Amino acid sequence: MEKDISIDELLKMELKDPEFKKGYEAENAKLASSVAIYKAREDLGWTQRELAEKADVPQSTVEKAERDNDFK
Fold it and tell me: What is the value of pTM for the model shown?
């Protein structure tokens, strides 16, 4: 019979693998950036279009930054 394992226990085991840990930390950083952009924009009461105009980027760049966490 298999032992039940929590997600926290599984993550702790997986993080022992340096390659997994590096990827996990990179994804966590991208997610944190996306959340920070979204929160700051919302706190200012700006739409994505307003932020894009102020940042001199297309609105699609702001949308992608908030949604995909995979912007350059």
Answer: 0.74
